[in-house]
Amino acid sequence: MAATLTEKIIARACGRDAVKPGEIVTGRLDLLMMHDSGGPRRVASRLEKLGARVWDPDKVVVVSDHFVPAVDLESAQILALTRNWARAQGVRHYDMLGICHVVLQEHGHVRPGMFCVGGDSHSPSGGAFGAFMVGMGATDITGALVTGEVWVRVPTTTRIQLDGRLARGVSAKDVMLMLCGTLGMGNEGQVFEFGGAAVGALSMHERLTLCNMTAELGAVTGIVPPDATTVAALEATGQSFGVDLAAWQSDPDAGFGAVHRHDAATLAPQVAAPHSPANSRPVTDYEPIAIDQCYIGACTGAKLDDLRMAAEVLKGRKVATTTRLLIAPASAAMTNQAAAEGTLATLTAAGAILLPSGCGACAGMGAGMLGDSEVGISTTARNFKGRMGSTHSQVYLASPYAVAAAAVKGVICDPRELLEEWA
Amino acid sequence: MKLTGRAFVFGDRIDTDLLAPGPYMRQPLDVLAAHCLEAIDPGFAAEVRPGDIVVGGESFGVGSSREQAVQALAKLGVGAIIAKSFARIFYRNALNLGVPALVCPQLQAERGQRIEVQPIEGRVVNLDTGREYRCDPIPAQLMEIVTAGGLMPWLEQKLARERQA
Ligand code: SF4
Q: Which pTM does this prediction carry?
C-alpha cells in the first residue's frame, strides 16, 4: 500500500505493515531528548515516586541549554541537578555545548526513519534528518522514559513543494515566515513534508530551520525526506550509518492531505510583526522602523549557515550607532568553526557582541533581554508578547540576512539591497 | 463513563496564556486557577462547579506546552473539555492529567445549558435542547489513562502489575 514517509516511520515503530492518518498507535522510541528546563528537574522526582528508571539509557540524551551559563543561584542548582541525574542514570549529557536541537544533529543522534520525542516544542527540528520527531510535556516525557513507548495519532501529510531556487538574500526562515503568514498557526494533525528542487538545494542547517518552525504552524511536526545531503551530514559526524535512502521516501501515489506549491525564486525576505509569527509579510511592505536591538540567536537562527548569512551582509560594514547587535551562536562547535573560517571575525569587526551558546534571550532567560518600549528584531522562532523580556517590548522576526541588514541601517530594511552593493 | 455538567462556552484559539496566565505561573496552583480565563470571562473561576464542562472552538489550548493550562481547569473541577479542535500538546496534557478532552465540531451549546458526555462512546447530548451529537470517541487505550486519573496513576498501576507478575 502506498504510504507517506511519516506513515512508514510510524508503522515501523509500532510493528505494523501500514498505518492510516487519524489512527492512534503506540510506537517504540529510538530516541528521547530532554533539556535542563523541562527535563530532570521535572521528571526526576516523578521517576523516584514510581520507583522506576529510564527504559534504555542508550536512547536518552540530555542537553543543558536553557539555563547556561548559570547567571543566578536558581539556574546553577538546576544545572547541577541535571548533571547529577544524567550521571546517575548513565545517559548522554551535553553540558553547555549548544542548543538541544542543534547538538543532537551535530552528534548524529537523529537519523532517517527514526521515531523520536523531545521535551521541547521545537523538537520537530529532528525531521530535517528524515526522522519523525515530536515535542511533549513533562508528564508525557516521564511516561516515555519509563516505558520506552509513546502513543501518537497518525498525522495527515501536507506536502510543501518548493520549486526553483531561493534568490540571494532569501532563506529557509523566510519560507517558514511566509507559511506562518499564509497558513496560520492552527494546522493541527498535520505533518509538513518539504520537497522540490529548492529544498534539495538547501543545507542541513536550513532544513533544520524548516522543520523547527513547523511548531509555529501548530503542526505535529515537519520532515524532509533524506537525500545525499543528509547522508553527507551524517557521515561528517564521524560515524558511519547504513542509510537506506530508498526506504525512507514517500511513495509518489501516497495519500497527501494537501500539496502546496510555491515558486521559491519569487519569495521575498519576510518579517513578522509583533506579537505572532502569523503576522508575516514581505519586508518591502514595512516602513523603516527603528530598531533598538538586533539579535542573532536560537536553534532557528544562529547555526553556522545563519552566521555566514549575517557575515555576508556585515562584511566590511559597521553596526549603526543607534542600535546593537548581539550574536549567540547555536553551539560551541559552530562557534569554533565560525572562528576557524573567519566568519566570527567578520561579525565582531562589524561590532557584534558575542554571547554564550544557549537559548539565552530566546527563552527570555539569558543575556539580551528587551526593556519596556524597546523594539527588537530577531532570528528566533517566536515573538509572543513578553517572550524576550518586557511585556511592553516589541519583537519582529526575520532571517539572519534581514537582522544583519537592520543592524547596519538601524532600521528594518531589505537585505537584498545591501547584498546587491557587493555583487 | 457518563459525565453531566453545565456548559461554559468559549470561542476559537483559547491559548495557554488565557488558561494559565504568565504573571501567576510562579504562584501555587489554586492561585493560578483563580485567574484561569479571567481575561475573557472574569466570572468563570468563581462560577464553575465540579463536573462542569468547558466548550471551546478551534485550536483549544494553543501555545506553550505548560501543563498548568490543564491543571488550572482540573483544579476548578472541570469534568471535561469539548472543542472543535485541540492543540496537540494540550490534548495530550489533558488526558495525561486525567481530564477527558473530546473533539465535537457540531455541538451547539450556550452557557449554563446542561451537557451530558460519554467520552468512550463518543456521544454528547445537550440536555436542554435535547439534541444529540456524535463525536470522535476517546480511544479505549487512552480512556484507560483518563479513568486511572491520569498518566502518573496509570503508570503506577502498570508498574505494580508488572512487579507482581
Ligand atoms: S533556542 Fe529558543 S526555540 Fe530553540 S530550544 Fe532554545 S528556547 Fe526553544
A: 0.91
